[in-house]
Amino acid sequence: MTARAADRARYDRATAQLDAPVAIVDLDAFDANAEDLVRRAGGKPIRVASKSVRCRALLERVLAREGFAGIMSFTLAESLWLARSGFDDVLLAYPSADRAGYAELAADPKLAAAVTVMIDDPAQLDLIDAARAGGSEVVRVCLELDTALKLLGGRVRIGARRSPLHSPAQVAEVARAVVRRPGFKVVGIMAYEGHVAGVGDAVAGRPLRSRAVRLMQAAARRELAERRAAVVRAVREVVPDLEFVNGGGTGSVQHTAAEDAVTEIAAGSGLYVPRLFDNYTSFTGRPAALFALPVVRRPGVGVVTVLGGGYPASGAPGADRLPVPYLPEGLRYDPQEGAGEVQTPLLGPVADDLLIDDKVWFRHAKAGELCERFDTLHLVEGDAVTATVPTYRGEGHTFL
């Protein structure tokens, strides 16, 4: 029996009494992935990206481990909810236009102490001030640096279009704007190098593309390390007591941690290890989050149909944004139908071994987005479900 076949047998036994669709997290794999992230971080604390987890119980589990500290959130409403729930160090990774949230933040000392908001433009300070509604608490601010690699005088750009702040002078100028403004305090810098951390460099069957990605990423790491260090020096001249410099992501943990200027690493997808994180030379994780769909039809030889399945991930549309049939091995989508909202046909000789009500296990393309489809996660240890915990959705929250 292969390792994957053994996993399928365990998951089937653990969920034998549960009707599919059902989602699980294999805690042995989850904990092993957490340990590997800590090893790769080389002693620097890891701030957990909640967008990639979306389950309070699992956030609590990983933050209880040595080597993890703080949360990187994705909306202001989520940040406030987490702070009210007892998490005392929440960095909002994206600028917000949530006026009601800012009013709540500025009026509550506990929330203002726990939550740090993201800006990259003084106009965002105007929005926050206009939303205060009399709240006078000091708002903690983090400045986001654009990490994109620019070539040929800026005519070629590699990297996500996030912050407009690219140079040390630009970031320092915004830091000065914050310092001059009553009611705000600069406490950190964030720089997410998604073109390094979120792009696999070992794409199966595409050796030339993989080599090109590795060359690009090596150049991007060198350029960003120099520029990030210069940015930190420039900002510290304005804000000597800067608390943190956050960088990285699951795919670049060890490289970002090696930079002296960086004080903490962000990571989250590496806990669940969705399919988009299979193609890296720097690490190999264990798939920890899966979902099962039930076989409901057997249309013919070499075909079964499962209920549901159309759970595409965000990003540029493409086949790599679809969940992948994982267990049993050997199933594939019908190219004429793909993954359907209500039903999904799957092809392959192994389909003839599946019966009505058997489970087919899938891996989502991205990590936390799976939790937008399920109210609960069943936590598996060995071949048993040892706990069932709510996702954000199960607690009544869909923040985006």
Explained architecture:
The model has no long low-confidence stretch (mean pLDDT 94). The strands form 3 sheets. Strands 1, 12, 13, 14, 15, 16, 17, 18 and 19 form a 9-stranded mixed sheet that branches. The chain has an 8-stranded parallel beta barrel with strand order 2-3-4-5-6-9-10-11, surrounded by 5 helices. It has a two-stranded antiparallel ribbon with strand order 7-8. It is 32% helix and 24% strand. It has 400 residues and is α/β, with parallel strands linked by helices. It is globular and about 70 Å long. It has 12 helices and 19 strands. Helix 4 links the parallel strand 3 and strand 4.
Question: Top keywords for this entry?
Answer:
single chain, 400 residues, alpha/beta, 9-stranded mixed beta sheet, 8-stranded parallel barrel, 12 helices, 19 strands, globular
Short description:
The chain has 400 residues and is α/β, with parallel strands linked by helices. It contains twelve helices and 19 strands.
What is the β-strand count? 19
Q: Any low-confidence stretches, pLDDT <50, length ≥5? A: none
- Rg for CA atoms: 22 Å
Report how far apart the termini are: 42 Å
Beta-strand content estimate: 15-25%
Alpha plus pi helix count: 12
What structural class do helix, strand and pairing data support? alpha/beta
Coarse shape: globular
Q: Percentage of helical residues?
A: 25-40%
Determine the mean pLDDT.
94
Largest sheet: 9 strands, mixed
Chart the SSEs and their pairings.
Elements: H1 3-14, E1 22-26, H2 27-41, E2 46-49, H3 56-63, E3 68-73, H4 76-84, E4 90-92, H5 99-107, H6 109-114, E5 115-119, H7 122-131, E6 139-144, E7 149-151, E8 156-158, H8 168-179, E9 184-191, H9 194-197, H10 207-238, E10 244-247, H11 253-257, E11 264-267, H12 269-272, E12 289-300, E13 303-307, E14 324-327, E15 332-333, E16 343-347, E17 359-363, E18 376-381, E19 384-390
Parallel strand pairs: 1-18, 2-3, 2-11, 3-4, 4-5, 5-6, 6-9, 9-10, 10-11
Antiparallel strand pairs: 1-12, 7-8, 12-13, 12-17, 13-16, 14-17, 15-16, 18-19
Helix pairs in contact: 5-7, 8-10
